[in-house]
Structure formats: C-alpha cells, structure tokens
Amino acid sequence: MSERTTEPIRRILLATDFSPPANAAVEYAERLAACTGASLLVLTIRQRLGSDPTSDESDDQMQRMFEEMCARVPGVPVEQLVLGGSPGEVICWVAQEKACDQIVMGTHGRTGILNLLMGSTAEYVVRHARCPVLTVPSRSNTEEPLKEPNFGNAMPRIQAL
User: Fold this and answer.
1) What's the pLDDT tens digit per position in 62-78?
2) Are 43 and 16 in contact (CB under 8 A)?
3) Which residues in 47-64 are b (16+ Cβ under 10 Å) and which e?
4) Mean pLDDT throughout 120-144?
5) DSSP-based three-state secondary structure for 156
6) Could you tell me the residue range of the domain that residue 127 belongs to?
7) What number is the average pLDDT over the span 27-45?
8) Start-to-end Cα distance in the chain
9) pTM of this structure
10) Which CATH number belongs to the domain containing residue 85 in this structure?
11) 160 and 1 Cβ atoms separated by less than 8 Å
C-alpha cells in the first residue's frame, strides 16, 4: 500500500457576508492562513446587485470589515472578490477557478429539517466542492489553538480507501 501525503494548503477561500454568525469562520480562516502560510481569498456574494438603494452603504461597510480583517493578519496575502449569483454555486465555481485548496465558511442553519445542522448554502458547498470544506458553527470557540488532526484508530481504514 502506498503512503498518501497531504498537500499543503496554499490558498484558502473564505466565503463570508461579514455578518455576526459568520464571524467565527472569518476568525478561523485568518488563523488558518497565518498558521499555514496560505493566501486568503475573501469571497462575498451579493444576491441583489445594482438596484438596492442600501447597496452603497452595505458596500462601504463590507469594505471597512475587509480592511479590518487585513489589518488583523499582517503578512498574509489577502484578496477580495465580490460577485453576484447563487451562493453555493458561486462558492464552488470560485474555488475551482482560483485553485483554492480549502474552503472555510460559517454555518447557522436556519431553514428546514434537512438543513438544520449546516444551512442550505453550506450543505450545497459540502456536497459539490472539489476541495475540502471546513464549516465553522457560529458559536465556535475560535480561541482554541489549531492542532494537527488526530485520526487515531481510523487512519488504517482511511488509507485503505
């Protein structure tokens, strides 16, 4: 049996709307990028572009939050991307087009039994993305140190796949 190696994380896609429930994912992505030396691509999806009279105010607020995030992770290359469209589809498309190694996104699951644990967008991305997806619950403790995963007894079964 050949030994599998883990590819390094070079580019992280952070999908966020900078809302309070998404803060834990933002903080986690910042820490993950700083720990791994990866660059960070921050994707925000606007569902209505153009005709919304509050869009200029929202854009200004989003830009301020993005700049604050950049200040918190000095030395981490950060790029911002704002697109319109269906969130799940856009996240998966950007991850593939921009060759992202990891997607980080928040979860808050507000609708329906099937989406109770994750939320419809997170569920879509987990099912359709071609790279690993890390979902961070809105009440996640981002103060805990990041650790190397320990698969313990499961590793022989994982390697057999």
Assistant:
1) 888 888 888 888 889 99
2) yes
3) eeeeeeeeeeeeeeebee
4) 83
5) helix
6) 11-141
7) 93
8) 11
9) 0.76
10) 3.40.50.620
11) yes
Amino acid 32 reads L
| 55-59, 79-83, 104-108, 116-120: segment of lowest average pLDDT | 116-120
Write out the DSSP string of 85-127.
S-HHHHHHHHHHHTT-SEEEEEE---S-STTTTT-HHHHHHHH
Which of 3, 19, 15 minimizes the C-alpha distance to 102? 15
Tokens of 73: 């992770």
Pairwise CA distance, residues 109 & 11, whole Å: 26
What is the number of domains present in the chain? 1
The one-letter amino acid at 118: M
Of the given ranges (77-91, 112-126, 142-156), which has the lowest mean pLDDT? 142-156
Both tokens of 24, joined, read 């834990």
